[in-house]
Specification:
Elements: H1 9-70, E1 94-99, H2 122-127, E2 135-140, E3 153-160, H3 163-166, E4 182-184, E5 189-191, E6 201-202, E7 204-211, E8 217-226, E9 235-240, E10 245-247, E11 255-257, E12 281-285, H4 288-296, E13 306-307, E14 316-318, H5 330-343, E15 346-349, E16 364-369, E17 372-374, E18 377-386, E19 389-393, E20 395-406, E21 409-413, E22 420-430, E23 436-441, E24 444-447, E25 454-457, H6 459-466, E26 473-481
Parallel strand pairs: 1-2, 9-12, 9-22, 10-24, 11-13, 11-25, 12-14, 15-16, 16-18, 17-19, 18-20, 19-21, 20-22, 21-24, 22-25
Antiparallel strand pairs: 1-3, 3-7, 4-5, 4-6, 7-8, 8-26, 22-23
Amino acid sequence: MKNNLRSGPESAQRGAALLIAIFTLLLISVIAISMIVLASTESAVTSNYKSSLQSFYNAKAGLEEGRGRTFGGSANPLSVSGFPSGGATLAIGHVWYILNPAAGETVSPTNLVATNAYADFEYNSEWGTPVTSATVQTVTSTSAVAGLPPAKYKWVRITPRTEKSAGLDINGDGVIDNANLVLYDGSQQLLSNQVSASQTYQVYTITALAVTSGGGRRMLQYNVSPVGLSMNFPSALTLDGPGASYGGPSSNPFTASGADLSGTSGEPASCNNIAQTPAKYALGATSTTDANYVAGGIPGNRTSHYTGAGASTPSVGNIASSLSQAEQTPAALDALVQQISSVANNVITGPASTVPLGTAAAPQVTVVNGDLNMSGNATGYGLLVVTGNLTLGGTVGWRGIVLVIGQGSFTYSGGGNNEFDGALFVAKTKSPLGVELTTLGAPTVSWGGGGGNGIHYDHCWINSALGGVTLPVKVLSFRELQDF
């Protein structure tokens, strides 16, 4: 009997095929596992990136809430909780937090224990002292919008800016300290003891921390400041335009002074720590010829009553180079009037015989479209704009800014003992029919009768008047911080 046993090459081929199949299966398995691991890694990277990106935009939203609520025109301004407004400043060492906890969560940035995920250790890196040493005020977030999920940042911090907090030697004296606040004049940041422009506003530093449930953490920072009306007041009384004419009173009590009265008695409490600015001209015109003509309108025995910038009296000078772009053409000045009108407390159609006067604590922004003829015993506070002829008499005075832009004609008659503290500005931008001129016309000021106690430059009252104007808050710089 024969056994048909097969061996040799065919059996070897079967074994090789099995090994190849097993190896191939292992290779496929390795590739599959690698792809699963890679997909998982990519998913984790994507998730981390998404969480980090989300925390970035959450922190950005926090910055925007902070910036928005320092703006007086916000629906929920911080000023209703006591944040400085109306020209007042946030003092060094004072901190405001906007807190935004999730439901059932506590957010306490001033609790500096190591286990507090929301502790504000970064404050110490800016100020060289822990936030527990500061005067702290907290409010809650108002970021929630119906129908939309709220931004999930945790806190926003608002502080004044100084050289120390900025880490910059702003005045170049070789010392970085907290001695002075940083202000913004529309083009540059400078210290409060360097101020020379009429309009300067405090610079705030706004810092926001956001933490997501996925572990994303980002800390961002703005430096912001209100932006003014782009006006400069280089003299107590500015006559803007060629052919300016001035008729001064012969009254002995009348004086016109460009020396800054800021910080003197009778001013708002917010002026107590405001440094006086360098002296301005008592009267300013836009060319040397016009300045000489304006000086010629001063009675010869009263020239010593006009003091301020300049080596001698009367203090009358060419201030053309000190005017802002907004003060140099009829179109720009009329646009400025429209800007003020859009935020004014009162817009009155002239002719008018009275306007809301406001108070030192609550100055008014009033625009009279047409003539204003007012007399009697009255003192106004704030910003007054008259587009027609302004005629005042009796004992009318003003604390703040008076702009006569349009017909460019200002007449004061009568005596009394009132005065104008702040700045007066007169410019002719329109014809008698109200048509805008292509170039500035000749402004006229006639000060007859007893004349009152005169005109005095006072940048505190100027700032107080502008404090009644709702100003946009501009971002000056933006950066991301290390999350301590």
